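Hey, can you fold this one?
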Amino acid sequence: MPTSIISKELTVHGDLASEGDIQIDGKVEGDVKTAKVTIGEGGSVNGTIVADNVVIAGAVTGEVRSKTISLVPTARVKADIFVDSLAIAAGARFEGSCKRYGSNTGAVEAKPAVRLAVAGGGTGELRTGTEDEG
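Sure. Predicted structure:
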């Protein structure tokens, strides 16, 4: 299935839904639900993104729910993230919370950490708040 493209000259006011992939180089004021979404450097989404795979090079404000999220160096994200696997490249900006995404149900599971890949090849865990913290 070919990728649907929102070009840099286009602004969409409303929700997008696709069974295929979406490339957003323009602006979306609404929710996005798809298999894979890529937000280009000049692209932006103000809303909720739900996808199996999300790559962000542009701006996102709202909420992101995905199995896999990659923030490249030009990413600017102000969102609550629900994810299984998160990669943040050096230079990417992220402001918000990060919680474990429920793979089977799409709901948030109560787990204390998310697998995290960081620039330079390192790995680690991004801790979220738990009741055990003192």
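Residues 35 and 51 are 5 Å apart (CA to CA). Let me know if you want another pass with a different chain boundary.
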